[in-house]
Amino acid sequence: MVIYGTPGQDGVCIGFPILPFFQTYNYENMRYALRNKHKITAAYDLKYYNRIIESLDKHFAENEEIELIQIEGDDYESIMVNDVGHTVNMFVFYMIRKTFDVYNLAFKEGIG
């Protein structure tokens, strides 16, 4: 167990290690953590996962402000990211939470 995450009643943050369930990427002003790398690679493949990461990298590097959308019927707000491998495809991610400048994301689907 490590100290981080959501503050407890006494103000101390307690949680479990992020990796291997999260992979965190740093940019100048904001970061993201993508959940469940192993589940994504098992459902698709490593090449597809790498395309997801490239798309997220480009999106976070080019945008100072991330646009969140609420899709009807979903519990979480979503982020839509252009697919760098295709001109018309997009990836959709749930924004689980934002802690400081870190967006915790879960892959929802690829569109297109």
Which stretches are low in confidence, meaning pLDDT under 50 for 5 or more residues running?
1-22
* Total DSSP E strands: 8
Content of β-strand: 35-45%
Order of helices and strands: EEEEHHEEEE
- Mean pLDDT equals 80
Q: What does this protein structure show overall?
A:
This protein has 112 residues and is an alpha+beta fold. The protein has one domain (19-111). Helix content is 21%, strand content 42%. The chain is built from two helices and eight strands, in the order ββββααββββ. The strands form two sheets. Strands 3-4-8-7-6-5 form a six-stranded mixed β-sheet. It has a two-stranded antiparallel ribbon with strand order 1-2. The longest helix is centred in the middle third of the chain and has 17 residues, at 46-62. The chain starts with a strand and ends with a strand.
Q: Any chance you could write out the topology, listing elements then pairs?
A:
Blueprint: E1 2-7, E2 13-15, E3 22-26, E4 31-35, H1 37-43, H2 46-62, E5 69-70, E6 77-82, E7 90-99, E8 102-111
Parallel strand pairs: 4-8
Antiparallel strand pairs: 1-2, 3-4, 5-6, 6-7, 7-8
Helix pairs in contact: 1-2
